Amino acid sequence: MKIAIIGTGYVGLVSGACFAEMGVEVTCVDVNKEKIENLKKGIIPIYEPGLEDMVHRNVKANRLNFTTKLEDILDDAQVVFTAVGTPPNEDGSADLKYVLSVAQEIGQKMSNYLLIVTKSTVPVGTAAKVRNTIQKELDKRGVDIPFDVASNPEFLKEGAAIKDFMSPDRVVVGTDSEKAKELITRLYRPFLLNNFRVIFMDIPSAEMTKYAANSMLATRISFMNDIANLCEIVGADVNMVRKGIGSDARIGSKFLYAGSGYGGSCFPKDVQALIRTAEENGYELRLLKAVEEVNESQKEVLFNKLLKRWGKDMKGKTVAIWGLAFKPNTDDIREAPAFVVMEKLLKAGAEIRAFDPIAIPTSKERIAFLENEQKNSDEKLDYSKVYFANDAYDAADDADAILLMTEWKEFRMPNWKVIKKSMRTPIVLDGRNIYDRNEMKEFGFDYEGIG
Fold first, then answer.
1. Domain count of the chain?
2. What is the domain range of residue 163?
């Protein structure tokens, strides 16, 4: 089977590589010429464990190809996946201009039957807009070419995307066409030989499923963070509470970890988009508004702990930040809590020594962007006070406090004796609750976690 995937971002590139791994002939399309040329040379634009090797292997086998010209592959492809970005508008709604632009181009250039599958995370009703856009272009051309539209939302976890795609716990597909159902079944059967788990449903339900899933996970995180904050006030231990409620089969133990808030490209954007969808339809999602509010305040929790110790003026203080990515095994810093804390510290006059095993390059790009953005602003932060360290020990050198923001494995068992000697004051604030309180006290640290 030959397929095309439009968009070589996180979802598009992972999907293309994984389909190719199963023997499908895949062509990935992107308007970014530099990105396509780099991909042809084996240069991968994102960090994802296992992805680089998989791309190289399938390019070499000629199962995975890259192009900037959609028209070159429309005649041969049976299925076209759209995996382009849906960035949030200022009001939180999803911007569909890239999705609809692709639909317009398909309608202008298709010549045979196509199944167009939306893999991007899009609001309910997007598939209908895609269908109408394609049909409008066909009508302009005066041609009658059959096509189907389907929704196939992705459920990939950054840092574990290859495993999630190759061994999915479910594949959700929204379609109103038997032919589309047959094509999707053929395409996904190799991934699900032992237990076929494609869940077919109507298209609006498939579009809603993605938003509802991410919003539920975000809700669990914010719930536990709220409980953690109350635990600190009343003297309870949120880790014990988590074990107690997680043992209830109706609740389960996943996504019940208190921390510094969620970030990334999915949860914040999808929660906002679902809230906006509800508003556009005359309904208020009060629970999700609270979820978002709790999360935004939770990103400041470690800074607030320093505020209680040092006060508003932190000039002369040096803070080590361990972890910049929003989660381990990715270089994605979008909506990362570390950057919220960094901004607060700089405003308070502190100096920062930051380290992340993977995300330093993307962090430097982000800071360069922020420096450029504030040129015309009255309030300017001195980003020269941010030093990117060579490792965790370098970051801790002469620091007044360590803030653990991302639970990378290499942060789990450092040599605390060495670190304590190198610090000015032995304060460790654990934003992911990965250290043992009693053990840290034995090492001589002023230690505080979340909850």
1. 3
2. 2-201
